[in-house]
User: What shape does this take?
Amino acid sequence: MIARSPTLGQILPPPTERYTVLGWLRRNLFSTWYNALLTALTLALVGLILAPTWRWLRTEARWNVIADNFGLFMKGQYPLDQVWRLWLCLHLIALSTGLMWGVFVRRREGVGWVLLLVPLVSGIGLLVGGVGSGWQLLLMAGLGGGAAWVGSRAASTLRRPTLILFLLTFPLCVLFVRGLDAIGVMPRVPTNLWGGLLLALLITVVGIVASFPLGVLLAFGRRSRLPAIRTLSVIYIEFIRGVPLITLLFMGQVMLPYFLPPGLVVDRVIRAMVAVILFSAAYMAENVRGGLQAIPRGQYEAASAIGLNSLQTTLFIILPQALRAVIPVLVGQFIGLFKDTSLVALVGLLDLVGIARGVLANPAYIGRQIEVYAFIAIVYWLFSYGMAYASHRLEKALGVGQR
Amino acid sequence: MSEPIIIARDVHKWYGHFHALRGITMEVQRGEVCVIFGPSGSGKSTFIRTLNRLEDHQRGTIIIDGIELSHDTRNIAAIRREVGMVFQQFNLFPHLTVLQNITLGPIHVRKWPKEKAEEVALQLLRRVGIPEQAHKYPGQLSGGQQQRVAIARALAMQPKVMLFDEPTSALDPEMIKEVLDVMIELAQSGMTMLVVTHEMGFARAVAHRMFFFDQGVIVESGTPEQIFENPQQERTKLFLSQILHHK
Assistant: This one.
């Protein structure tokens, strides 16, 4: 006779666990003697760091160095009467990312977050940038949130326009920032006036956008059956990966003029961008190659069997899967690239770090290193974390690891 | 009798020093259903994979629907348009929906407009019994459903010949029948089929001829009656007794 449980065969909810705060503490922080020791040590360490930080914040920190130079940190010496062009770029970015969010991610609570962030961000803008910035930020948040709302409502009809707008955003922004003498209201702003966060972001985005196709081509080149292409790709990748970015930047600034015909002067910012692109492409190639290797042979065979040629197989079958598999790695690389742009300060460009060094050289701000470097660290962190968060959402939206 | 749709004459294939196909000669008529069986490593999969050039053969002649298979990529492309293939591991494209899996070939190889391709795809999904799965991704389907999508994907190119490479070997037992039912229906509709399988029930039901492969050669061939009731070769008898005892 088998003893039958009275609930045999019934569909039951999973058992729930409830515990009190004390119970949770005991279970997670003090479960064993060494766990308790670790908890105590960690708390002590946190205290050791926080206490002096707090003391410094209360007694010594003088943030006027940031407030006085906020514009400089954000945009360098970009002419004040042309700053509206930067705002135009930001509005365009807000509009297109809002639409992308609404059409492709389609999560309503995202809109709620935007509405929550609007007063917050505009408040900060008002505090640090004056009334004008506050209004602009308000408009930006409104555009982004509104676009997301409209996008999620009319997702199917807006698919194509949204994609086109998104692809056009970057070239348009570059055009707005740089300007053209042919456009009367947007005279050209020479690149030596670009600076601060604006310059760091421009170098980053140009680096990502240009090194991406180059890296994909190199990844395929390294897997090519043609020995010449394969060897060239390997040499390029391994050479660049064996050299620190700073040497490439110096080569671009110092050595390049000797190789160019006399009279031809390439802009210093462009030279830095080229160095960053060449550097990033080599890493991109290796990351993409990792994704390509993860594609099973059966995918190539199935594509051949239905008659796709090798270009179609690559575009429709292999690349989409390979790139989706390496999104986390690529975003890691992009974050690294963003932070690496701080090296351009060493070749004399005025990015965030360059501006920081300039500001600190001003006798009025002697001894304000901590404030300045803490501030730019926070700026770098905000953008890096933003990228990480966006990539996380993108992975979810594309269902990485589920399909 | 008209010209055979598949002609293979003295086909040889080496992997390094290993002689995988040692002179295969076979002719298949239009509308004929042929079952290829044999122990693993006998070259049966290799042989049907040479028929659409997933593997190249190094000696001998293969002619499909009057086109000779050679290194000429135009011939390979032409043959692949006429030959559909179903794999043991399904090999669906995981990043595309079922509908996109099926319409990819017709849109980009046959250059059909999207609407026509989707209409045909939906018809085929009804034919294999899963029209309601059109907008799901392969990962959301059972193995049997995935294999039926793979069959629909191959049929969407409107091939003249269908190759099946152990189509039920990766399936759970309860899903084998749903795939075999689709294949039986296809065979009865007059499709020319070459099937590598050990499903002897399927062979008995619809095969016109059977080929027993061992060590890279065709040991014996004949109608299912001849093979099952009166096999001539000892190796055939032994192999059949092994797989039939098991069932």
Notes: The domain at 193-403 of chain A is CATH 1.10.3720.10 (MetI-like fold).
